[in-house]
Amino acid sequence: MNVNSYIVKEKLPKEVAVRQRLVETLQRVAAQPAMGQQEIDQVNKQIQVLNSEINNLNEARMKEVEEDESPESKVGKLSFFRQNAAIITRKKEQTAEKLNELRSEITNYQEEMREKQDQLKQFSGEQVLRGEEFKRYVNKLRGKSSVYKMKRAELSDLRAEYGILSRTEEILKAKDAQLLEQLNAMEAQMGVSGFHETQESMEKVSSMKATIDARKGETLEEMSGMVMDLNKKIAERKAHLAPIIKELRPLRQKMQDLTVDYNEKKHSYDSVAAGLDSNMAKLEQEVKVILLIIYLFIFLAS
């Protein structure tokens, strides 16, 4: 109530002059280059330091005046107290002006906030978040953004892993088809095409034929072992793909490793193929002997 009474009774007559000084101050400020937040903070610190020094000087001077009891000092005290009263009056005016400005700003902000809320309600029909609710909402969005980035990185890794696995599967399927084609060619070359389908009927032939069947069975078991080894290596590769993708980028080094591994496998395959080729002549000779014996049995039976 005291502040309001002061504003009504004392401040209003000076309102025009104060507003004029404010306009002049704003014009001078507008003519100056814009200040950053750091510069503003420095100016505020300087103002605080100067105010503190002024207060210290006033307190020291007041103490000196009060301690001096001479007649001359009484006149000095009166002048000093008048100066302090003028200073306090100016501070009072500044405080009241600042209070009035703050009230006006608060009113303007409240009115602007209500207008913005009404506008947002017209578009969304929802209440605007404020204060802690808005902070929680922003933190929630940041959390979702972090999760999204993490999931996107995981998806990229999974896509890369899927591409490598798909390529490995294609290579192994090609090798499997190649081995099957070679097996069919070997059976055709040995004159026993479809051997795995007619094995039971071949067992009724002579003991020499049974020996040959055993050898061929060993060959099939060896090939089956190769397939099992390949499946095992596929499982091992799949288990190691994820850490390899993360730890051994770029993929050029991985490709070089796969090339070396492929060359080793090819060398092993060439060695096995060379061994099979060396045994092929013997098997062909044995098949010819078996066929000759079969023809003799048929001839004698007829």
From TrEMBL:
Keyword Coiled coil carried by entry: yes
Organism: Portunus trituberculatus
Gene Ontology cellular component annotations, sorted alphabetically: ciliary basal body; intraciliary transport particle B
Highest taxon, organism lineage: Eukaryota
Name of the protein: Intraflagellar transport protein 81
Keywords annotated in UniProt: Cell projection, Cilium, Coiled coil, Flagellum
GO biological-process terms attached to the record: cilium assembly; intraciliary transport
Coiled coil: 40-126
GO molecular function annotation: tubulin binding
